[in-house]
Write a structure and sequence with these properties.
Layout: E1 3-8, H1 15-29, E2 37-39, E3 42-46, H2 50-59, E4 63-65, E5 68-73, H3 90-96, E6 100-106, H4 122-153, H5 157-174, H6 189-194, E7 203-208, H7 219-231, E8 234-238, H8 240-246, H9 251-260, H10 267-278, E9 281-287, E10 291-298, H11 303-310, H12 312-316, E11 318-324, H13 326-331, H14 335-340, E12 345-347, E13 358-363
Parallel strand pairs: 1-5, 1-6, 4-10, 6-7, 7-8
Antiparallel strand pairs: 2-3, 3-5, 9-10, 11-12, 11-13
Helix pairs in contact: 1-8, 4-5
The protein binds guanosine-5'-diphosphate and magnesium ion.
The site of guanosine-5'-diphosphate has 16 residues, from helix 1 and helix 8.
Family: Belongs to the TRAFAC class OBG-HflX-like GTPase superfamily. OBG GTPase family. YchF/OLA1 subfamily.
Cofactor: Mg(2+)
GO cellular component, one term: cytoplasm
């Protein structure tokens, strides 16, 4: 399952600069990894995870295969977009297909770069975009509701649930608030996700600051941080310009460049990690002499479902998962040591996979 993060924001805030830097840096970092830019605006990046390298070193794995995340550079969001301004509704379909939104906000001053509204105000920009998404959600719900009401009259049980969820969403949106603020019960979670509302997706604000403020942030990014905290959303501070420069350096040069700027790691790594947290994603590993590989799952995934990420047959024929916690694998210096120390567990169908688990699946074909 690929996780997709849509990069949105007003024009000229640095979305494409960031996207290009992300995909280029990722390609350079994962030298032996089949990286691809799928379409000009869609790129897959390797999720950096130092644990994977340690596991591979212990197991002597020939190949290291990180897990991946997809970024989509979504252009065309402007004031009035929901009414067909700019690229109009084209961007909506692009956003619907994502799991989360990285909302880039301009927090840099530069008279050479035009701001669409003639002033730099990231909090107002965030509201502009959110308003467009709220309107787009309202319009799509109002259209869909008519259909659902027909089905309800026809006695369709699922439609009754959908109508209830749609009305809850509409009430929130009509109050000018995003659908993500609606409290959804576990039994409604799937139907809710299926509605694919733009404003129900989790948001990560990306404050694009100038190069000299990347380590500290600035007054504008501080305002975004405040707004994000009040909304229960998260934020990261990065400089798209720095990321662009890093993407042209080799790894050692990049490290030196970062330390000169007082930065511990590239914005790429922070952004991807924040995306992972936002989506409640975890990683498990498969480790052997041939390859060490990381796999992405949602928190709370059962062992058979986790096996299904590798292959559907693994899930259908699941027998058990030989499981070693990451720390045990390291402390016992590998699988053999873990076995001897009694740290390898045989876990069944109801086991909930934990972040960092090293798994070996046994299955019927
Ligand atoms: N000074 C400065 N300019 C930037 C920064 N990020 C992007 N830009 C410039 O802003 C312009 C628009 O950037 P772009 O990435 O195309 O914006 P998009 O429309 O959001 O995709 C380009 O000329 C970039 O070089 C930044 O952090 N500082
Ligand atoms: Mg662009």
């Amino acid at each position: 399952m690929g996780f997709r993060m849509g990069i949105v924001g007003l024009p000229n805030v640095g979305k494409s600069t960031l996207f290009n830097a992300l995909t280029k840096t990722a390609a350079a970092q994962a030298a032996n990894f089949p990286f691809c830019t799928i379409e000009p605006n869609v790129g897959e990046v390797a999720v950096p995870d130092a644990r994977l390298d340690r596991l591979a070193a212990i197991a002597g794995s020939k190949q290291i295969i990180p897990t991946r995340m997809t970024f989509v550079d979504i252009a065309g969001l402007v004031k009035g977009a929901s009414k067909g301004e700019g690229l109009g509704n084209q961007f909506l379909a692009n956003i619907r297909e994502t799991d989360a939104i990285a909302h880039v906000l301009r927090c840099f001053e530069d008279d050479d770069v035009t701001h669409v509204d003639g002033r730099v105000d990231p909090v107002a920009d965030a509201e502009t975009i959110e308003t467009e998404l709220i309107i787009a959600d309202m319009e799509s719900l109002e259209k869909r509701l008519q259909n659902i009401l027909r089905k309800v009259r026809g006695g369709d049980k699922e439609a009754v649930q959908q109508e209830r969820l749609m009305r809850a969403a509409l009430e929130m949106l009509e109050a000018g608030k995003p659908a993500r603020l609606v409290k959804v019960d576990a039994e409604d979670a799937k139907a809710w996700r299926m509605m694919q509302l733009l404003t129900s997706k989790p948001v990560l604000y990306v404050c694009n600051v100038s190069e000299d403020e990347a380590a500290t942030g600035n007054a504008l990014s501080a305002r975004v941080a405040e707004m994000a905290a009040a909304q229960g959303n998260s934020h990261v501070v990065i400089s798209a310009k720095i990321e662009e420069e890093i993407s042209q350096l080799d790894p050692e040069e990049a490290e030196m460049f970062l330390s000169e700027l007082g930065l511990e790691e590239a914005g790429l790594d922070r952004l991807i990690r924040a995306g992972y947290e936002l989506l409640h994603l975890e990683t498990y590993f498969t480790v052997g002499p041939k390859e060490a590989r990381a796999w992405t799952i949602r928190q709370g995934t059962s062992a058979p479902q986790a096996a299904g990420v590798i292959h559907g047959d693994f899930e259908r024929g699941f027998i058990r998962a030989e499981t070693i916690a990451y720390d045990d694998f390291i402390a016992s210096n590998g699988e053999q040591g873990a076995k001897e120390a009694g740290k390898m567990r045989a876990e069944g169908k109801s086991y909930v996979v934990q972040d960092g688990d090293v798994l070996h699946f046994l299955f019927n074909t």
